[in-house]
Design brief:
35% helix; alpha+beta; Gly-tRNA_synthase/POLG2; 5-stranded mixed β-sheet; 11 helices; single chain; aa-tRNA-synth_II/BPL/LPL; 20 strands
Length: 368
């Protein structure tokens, strides 16, 4: 079984996702319970990087009803609003993280495992920067670096990401791609283009005038830099990146290791096999601590098999789900309130009092 096939098999087993095949083509990716959480975290981090933390104003938009659309026409109404909010002054940007799209040309369609990176139907992540003409080229180079940094930041192997040489098409449009290197070859995961004013070429002169904006006192047609990827590409990249095979007795076991910002669940609980009374007390304690963590916004998995399986088995289940931290309870926890916080990265435990567990985990999850 190929590596990618083993990854897809594990994704299905642990409710991440599975490809849905219709008419001999991968139509879309169907997400399970953990996959939905992973997608939610990926979208949140993309929005934080592309919208929330940007210096310029970035406005969100979506064309969820349109199957095929011209990007500049779909931006007409949002652009008018942006001009109003920005006092008609450049620069400002737009971000789309919800539009459902369909691949326009599936001549290379099929059901090979690698097609999971580009299913027929996908959710696009697209960013449009409307730049001051004199600054568009500088922003194009800057944006390449920023997007590459974003992918590398959440990767267990940052060196797998690279930028291609800048290419120029027949229309003089510059573009570059971010690619990820895997055992089976390279995957193109994002495209960045310096469109300049060519995005307006399909418009009538009257429509072009609607997009005129101000730089100081002069009116100019903005220069556009855009970048595009998809939720499906990002999901597949981080699933494949996080997949690891570790030595296990005389065999190997499969686990997922996600960045703590992307991990579907941030923490779970485990306890060794104990007598029924002690086990029940620890389960009640785990429920109490878990609810406190959830109320603080920490995604927590409270399992029913606490103290009903071996500790090693509980660790294995947690590692397969890519949970970064495990709060290990034991009999003495009921007396002194001390739990062991196990990290998936180091497999070491640090001791912490239950009263400080929520605030400490919050701090761990908050930091990149």
């Amino acid at each position: 079984m190929s590596l990618l096939n083993r990854i897809l098999s594990m994704c299905k087993a642990y409710a991440y996702m599975e490809p849905i095949i219709i008419n001999s083509t991968i139509d879309h990716l169907k997400y399970g319970a953990t996959g939905e959480l992973l997608c939610q975290n990926i979208r949140n981090e993309w929005l934080y990087s592309n919208v929330t933390s940007r210096d310029e104003s970035v406005f969100q938009f979506c064309n969820i009803r349109e199957k095929y659309f011209n990007d500049i026409l779909s931006l007409k109404d949002p652009f008018m609003n942006a001009k109003q909010f920005s006092n008609n002054q450049l620069p400002f940007s737009f971000a789309d993280s919800r539009s459902l799209c369909e691949q326009p040309d599936l001549m290379d369609s099929g059901v090979g495992d690698r097609k999971c990176f580009s299913p027929k139907n996908f959710t696009r992540f697209k960013y449009f920067a409307f730049c001051i003409p004199e600054e568009s080229r500088q922003f194009f180079y800057h944006w390449q670096r920023q997007r590459k940094i974003w992918w590398r930041k959440f990767s267990a192997n940052p060196g797998r990401f690279s930028l291609t040489e800048i290419s120029i098409d027949d229309n003089g449009q510059e573009s570059t791609e971010i690619r990820a290197e895997f055992e089976w070859g390279q995957e193109t995961i994002e495209t960045i283009r310096n469109v300049n004013t060519k995005i307006f070429d399909s418009l009538e002169s009257v429509e072009q005038e609607m997009f005129l904006s101000r730089v100081g006192k002069r009116k100019v047609l903005p220069h556009v830099v855009e970048s595009e990827t998809s939720l499906e590409k990002a999901c597949m990249v981080f699933l494949c990146d996080g997949y690891t095979e570790l030595p296990y007795h005389n065999d190997r076991r499969e686990v997922f290791r996600f960045h703590r910002k992307l991990a579907p669940y941030k923490i779970t609980f485990a306890a060794p096999l104990l007598n029924a009374k002690k086990a029940d007390e620890l389960r009640q304690l785990s429920i109490y601590l878990g609810l406190n963590l959830k109320k603080s916004g920490v995604s927590t998995l409270i399992t029913p098999y606490l103290a009903k399986k071996s500790l090693e088995s509980q660790f294995t289940d947690s590692d397969c789900l890519g949970i970064p931290y495990i709060a290990v309870l034991n009999e003495s926890t009921l007396d002194d309130g001390i739990v062991g916080l196990r990290s998936i990265e180091t497999t070491l435990e640090e001791k912490i009092h239950v009263a400080n567990l929520t605030s400490y985990v919050e701090l761990l999850i908050k930091n990149y």
